[in-house]
Amino acid sequence: MRDFARGDPSASGAPRPDPLGLAFDAAREAAARGEVPVGAVVVRDGAVLAVAGNRPRADRDPTAHAEILAIRAACAALADERLTGCDLYVTLEPCAMCAGAISFARIRRLYFAAGDPKGGAVEHGPRFFNQPTCHHAPEVYGGLRESEAAALLRDFFRDRRS
């Protein structure tokens, strides 16, 4: 686990890594592997439990989205199927599958960068967490570093088409 919450970064002189920044790093690594550039990070009490980037192509697994992989790794790290008290940071609005996993894992807060009008399921499409059948809805904060995430996706798909 990486701990970025201990101490005052100004006192130590060392910059404190931010979870969304780590998610962007994972997204860029995914893009370098030819995967859609999405990254996710699970944090609890200031400690980074898991960092993952998309891997559906590499793993030949359509469920290997960054969010799912990060949730699986965090559950393994905590030896628990519930991530109570954990926050998830993602570079793109989660799809319906990932929103379901977020709900079942009992993620406390979801932070995401870019909205996804085509495949997103939090602010777009089915609005998963607003459904009466959703047993747990996290606090949701979207639009963080949105232009950076949009540029990463735009550049990735532009390069794939050329």
TrEMBL record:
Entries under Pfam families matching the protein: dCMP_cyt_deam_1
Active site: 67 (proton donor)
Name of the gene this protein is made from: tadA
CDD domains in alphabetical order: nucleoside_deaminase
Cofactor: Zn(2+)
GO terms, biological process: tRNA wobble adenosine to inosine editing
Listed name of the protein: tRNA-specific adenosine deaminase
Cofactor detail note: Binds 1 zinc ion per subunit.
Residues holding Zn(2+): 65, 95, 98
Subunit and interaction comment: Homodimer.
Gene3D superfamilies membership: Cytidine Deaminase, domain 2 (3.40.140.10)
Transmembrane segments: none
Keywords: Hydrolase, Metal-binding, tRNA processing, Zinc
Similarity remark: Belongs to the cytidine and deoxycytidylate deaminase family. ADAT2 subfamily.
Catalyzed reaction equations: adenosine(34) in tRNA + H2O + H(+) = inosine(34) in tRNA + NH4(+)
EC class of the enzyme, as a word: hydrolase
Protein's UniProt keywords contain Metal-binding: yes
EC number(s) on file: 3.5.4.33
Molecular functions (GO terms): tRNA-specific adenosine-34 deaminase activity; zinc ion binding
Keyword tRNA processing: yes
Annotated function: Catalyzes the deamination of adenosine to inosine at the wobble position 34 of tRNA(Arg2).
Annotated ranges, domain CMP/dCMP-type deaminase: 14-123
